[in-house]
TrEMBL record, chain A:
<dbReference type="InterPro" id="IPR044549">
    <property type="entry name" value="bHLH_AtIBH1-like"/>
</dbReference>
<keyword id="KW-0805">Transcription regulation</keyword>
<keyword id="KW-0539">Nucleus</keyword>
<keyword id="KW-0804">Transcription</keyword>
<dbReference type="InterPro" id="IPR044660">
    <property type="entry name" value="IBH1-like"/>
</dbReference>
<dbReference type="GO" id="GO:0005634">
    <property type="term" value="C:nucleus"/>
</dbReference>
<feature type="region of interest" description="Disordered">
    <location>
        <begin position="63"/>
        <end position="83"/>
    </location>
</feature>
<protein>
    <recommendedName>
        <fullName>BHLH domain-containing protein</fullName>
    </recommendedName>
</protein>
<dbReference type="GO" id="GO:0006355">
    <property type="term" value="P:regulation of DNA-templated transcription"/>
</dbReference>
From TrEMBL, chain B:
<keyword id="KW-0804">Transcription</keyword>
<dbReference type="Pfam" id="PF23174">
    <property type="entry name" value="bHLH_ILI"/>
</dbReference>
<dbReference type="InterPro" id="IPR044293">
    <property type="entry name" value="PRE"/>
</dbReference>
<dbReference type="GO" id="GO:0046983">
    <property type="term" value="F:protein dimerization activity"/>
</dbReference>
<keyword id="KW-0805">Transcription regulation</keyword>
<dbReference type="InterPro" id="IPR011598">
    <property type="entry name" value="bHLH_dom"/>
</dbReference>
<dbReference type="GO" id="GO:0006355">
    <property type="term" value="P:regulation of DNA-templated transcription"/>
</dbReference>
<dbReference type="GO" id="GO:0040008">
    <property type="term" value="P:regulation of growth"/>
</dbReference>
<protein>
    <recommendedName>
        <fullName>BHLH domain-containing protein</fullName>
    </recommendedName>
</protein>
Amino acid sequence: MDTHVAILDVDGQEGMERRQQQLVLRERGRRIKAAAELGLARSSRGRQWGRALGRRTLVVSPEDGEVTSSSTTVGKRQAAQKKATSLEDEEEVVVEEKVALLRQLVPGGEDMAVEGLLEETADYIEALKAQVGVMRALACLLSGSGLDALMPEKAAAGLLTPEKPH
Amino acid sequence: MSGRRGSRISDDEINELISKLQALLPESSRRRSASRSSASKLLKETCSYIKSLHREVDDLSERLSGLMSTMDNDSPQAEIIRSLLR
């Protein structure tokens, strides 16, 4: 076989395998995230954001869309600012805009009154922090360095020593 | 009151927003911002904070995915993961 073609072939094969592996990894990552969100929703003790998140996660979409300010939001702000004459009015416009953004970030936020939205936001932030903590601990565990911290008794009994070298 | 698009926020509500939001944000940013932070600034920080937490969840999900692919199914680590998923 021509060396040129042979090299291209190997590259193509490896490239394809790498791409496939990437797809597998990404898909697993998405499922991990969905599992984490479901766990988060279940631990919310019936909170509105929890119920909304639970409903949303069950309709798993292949690609999670980024929540960004759309052009319509900017358009609305420009229209509102034309009405706002004083400094206070301007501040109020920005607040309205930020509240709208918060509604998109907190699950179920679109259906809440402003006061309720803040309550839910506080609870949601606390839950997110806890979720991040758990996932960090899991990552630590899987990278082999955190076992002792998580299971001191078993570590003492010598049950956690890895059999093969990393 | 539904508080959806169209309803305006009163001054009182804004003041309450400010104190509630300051309590929400992490210690570090609370100290950095003066006590006279505007509601809009606090709301902006809250939104960024939530977005950064979301990004962390995404990054960790990806990382865990990679770590799990190299995991030995018979290890104690795998058993811990399995017990969490039950």
